[in-house]
Write a structure and sequence with these properties.
Number of domains: 2
Number of helices: 3
Order of helices and strands: HEEHH
Shape: globular
Radius of gyration: 15 Å
Structural class: mainly alpha
Largest sheet: 2 strands, antiparallel
Strand content: 5-15%
Strand order of the largest sheet: 1-2
Bound molecules: zinc ion
Length: 78
């Protein structure tokens, strides 16, 4: 099972709310110095971004991602 299948299986399926949810991942990027690829990825899959982070993920990379998306005109405010 590759990482995509593993994540879709882990986070999809039956839920405590009584519904079945489906998780479809179209892209996964893992690596160093890849944040600058994000604007092209967003355009590849559409143009809307809903960004969620907690304090830890915001500090680790979220603020950098938001800055990149704002600079590229994709994300307006955060
Ligand atoms: Zn649910």
């Amino acid at each position: 099972m590759n990482m995509r299948e593993q994540i879709e299986k882990e986070y999809g399926g039956s839920c405590a709310c009584g519904k079945a949810h489906e998780v479809i991942l179209e892209d996964i990027r893992i690596g160093s110095h890849i944040l600058d690829e994000i604007p092209d990825l967003v355009r590849k899959h559409g143009s809307k971004v809903f960004m969620i982070s907690d304090r830890n993920t915001w500090n680790a990379a979220g603020k950098d991602v938001a800055a990149i998306l704002e600079k590229d005109g994709i994300l307006a405010g955060s």
